[in-house]
Fold this protein.
Amino acid sequence: MSLPRHIAIIMDGNGRWSKDRAKPRHLGHKAGLEALKTIIEAVAKRGIRYLTVFAFGIENWLRPSEEVNYLMSLFLTALKRDIGRLHEHEIQVLFIGDRKRINTELIRSMEEAEALTRQNHKMTLIVAFNYSGRWDIEQACQQLAQKVAENIMPVSAINEAMISHHLSTAAWPDPDLFIRTSGEQRLSNFLLWQLSYAELYFTEKYWPEFDENELEKALAFYALRERRFGQISEQIGMKDAS
């Protein structure tokens, strides 16, 4: 079966999972964290090189303050508790997003996790935290504008490749497969540039219900897709034959 090199996931539905079970929302987030651990191990086991997960979007600050505070606390606790296990499994951990609004203790833990796992090469886990796709494109444009203003490069040098090079994801390939749980069918400001040619897989399952079997369904969907990148089927066939 053809496997993607890079999977990106919006882990959606923790709150609705809780509501359907008449449980507090925070229990859904805890269950979602356990599901993430399962999927990280499952992805690594299959030899898939990159996994990017949307942990907290810039727009999520609009949620009730008690929920935001809980999410920050849960993320910090998970980092401190689980980074050792990820390191033992030779998984590199990286974070993308705007760190300006994140508290100092959490930033320190993120930086420590990155430093600890820097030499790991079995799989790279990219956590999008306080991230948005529009922010990513904005900050790339700002970098390029600064270089033009300082006469480091001419305006004519700005092209698609140059913009990609200045995104927060420049160090790894764009996602091949995008997964979103809970039945929602939108990108929600996640990796807007990078998902241009990804295969999009949507499932009705809430994120806490997304297990290894559900991952297999998404991978089977991907394996059946013909990735043409603007070409026609006959051209793809000619490449395969050669």
Notes: The first helix runs from residue 14 to 20.
